Amino acid sequence: MKRGLKLAATGLALCCGIALPAASESLYQEGSFRPLTADNKAFRVGDSLTIQVFENSSASSSANTGTRRANDISGSVTQTGNRVVGQLGIGIAGEFDGGGRTQRTNKLLATLTVTVKEVLPNQELRVAGEQQLMVNEELQKVNLEGRVRPQDISDGNVVLSTRLADARITYVGEGEVSDRARRSLWRRVLDIWGF
Fold it and tell me: 91 or 34, which is more confident?
């Protein structure tokens, strides 16, 4: 019965030319508007950005130490009368030569796509993302986060990892090969004791 009344009221309004209020919405949305001539670069929260990771690091240090020590004490007593002859001599000598060298080189090449998590007040983009690869039943994870200046983003929406501020790049492998590469517990304990 109520449905019939609504249909009759709508039909009456159409016949009499009475305009019903229409809901309208603007086509322009400030948060998602991008001009037709703009580059396709990340600029807002949720946008994707490709990071090319080219990280090389190397460090080396060496130390050499040489120590020589020689001490000598000597004494002598001679008497010809009742024949007192005494002689004393102490000699101490020591040498130490020591040296050590450490060297480490790391290289990481990867390309991963991250997401803009926040647009900072100075218009820099805080980005973060993770990539997981399974290679020969070994799980490899690359985690990346940092800040990007909009002017460092190329026309192809790509930025080099060397242009990231406060970059944190983590590469972790999990599996049998990674477990075999770690030192055993007993070896670590002996290293702590200096053996």
Answer: 91
